[in-house]
Amino acid sequence: MKIAMIGTGYVGLVSGVCFSDFGHEVVCVDKDLTKIEKLKAGEVPIYEPGLDVLMAKNVEAGRLSFTLDLEEALDGAEAVFIAVGTPTRRGDGHADLSYVMAAAEEIARTAKDYIVIVTKSTVPVGTNRQVKQTVKKANPQLEFDVASNPEFLREGAAIEDFMKPDRVVVGVQNDRAAEVMNEIYRPLYLREYPIVTTDLESAEMIKYAANAFLATKITFINEIAALCERVGGDIKEVSRGIGLDNRIGNKFLHAGPGYGGSCFPKDTKALARIGQEHAVPMQITETVIKVNEEIKRRMIDKVLDLCGGSVNGKIIAVLGVTFKPNTDDMRDAPALTIVPALVGGGAKVRVCDPQGQHEGEALLPGVHWVEDAYKAANNADLVVLLTEWNEFRALDLKRMAKKMNLPHMADLRNIYSPRDAKRAGFTAYASIGRGEYFDD
Hints:
The chain has 440 residues and is of the alpha/beta class. The chain has a domain at 2-198: Rossmann fold (3-Layer(aba) Sandwich). The protein has 18 helices and 15 strands. It has helices at residues 10-21, 33-40, 51-60, 70-74, 98-110, 127-138, 158-163, 175-184, 186-190, 200-231, 235-243, 264-277, 283-306, 335-344, 357-363, 373-377, 397-403, 418-424; strands spanning 2-6, 25-29, 64-67, 79-82, 115-119, 144-148, 168-171, 195-198, 315-319, 348-352, 368-369, 382-385, 408-411, 428-430, 438-439. The strands form three sheets. Strands 11-10-9-12-13-14-15 form a seven-stranded mixed sheet, with helices on both faces. The protein has a six-stranded parallel sheet with strand order 3-2-1-4-5-6, sandwiched between helices. Strands 7-8 form a two-stranded parallel sheet.
């Protein structure tokens, strides 16, 4: 089957590459000339482990190509996926659908034969019906159907998530569209991965409900972590104890500096806005948004405490600034709240991140980028572990402590234990949700 993919951002590129690996002919379309030229040259514009190899394999096989020409992409295609951005709209928190609707209009003006228009972008409930109206208005003669196919890709593990999904969600209005979608996902169906076929509105809602629930889970454990610090509990033990309950599960129960990334912040805000518009306030989700921001600011207080109340003139090494490991994504990362506060407080901040510099240079002005964690810690007054990259999970803490002016550590991902830090020579250490804090 031939598939057109509009948008070569994170979702569009990963989806296009993986569909081509299923055996489909996929043409990825984008208006960004520079991006298309890079893709044609074999360069992947995002960091996602294994994506470059898979892309090269399918380009060589002739199943995957890239173009600026939508007409070329739609020629002979049975389905076209809209995978463009839906950023939070300024002022009201709603998802900005202008890119989605613009893509729908272009499809309407360009398509010549029956086609299923599939929304892959995360969109509010009712958007697919708006897409249908937009296409009908732009080209009343076009024969088409719409489908909702939300993505559930974790950055850093997107290929595995696509190839071995917990479920695939498909929203359709009739059997004809369902048959096309079934053919697209036939390789997964044959391997008995769950395909949830439902109506348009339910498919749209599943995406928002899933992300809001996971964001709630993260925020809940972070609030429990704050309480553990006051009462002397250990959040790692608490997380393990409740996570063994099958009704709760152990995923997304790792305390840290708050959630970030391309999905949770945007989708929780959009869900809250949808609730307001329909007079059904999403009070839990609204609270999650508020508490998550407070958690990020609480991390600043931890750093200040380790620096005697002020970071002015201090040298601080920040290890990791992307919102999670195995990605170069800086969107809504806790670092964007914490690091500017340190710079604004007069600290000299050195940053080390395996993939974050390209995006981070523009987002974190006033910091010095270094390629090595030990170089970042040289003569520093504090090390802040902010993203749990594998490179930071097995540091030689003795070596690091000896290089520092003041061997203090803020372990905001609970990578190490207070005992290990103390044995290595750190004289002050703080983590998340563990009552044991020392300051010699």
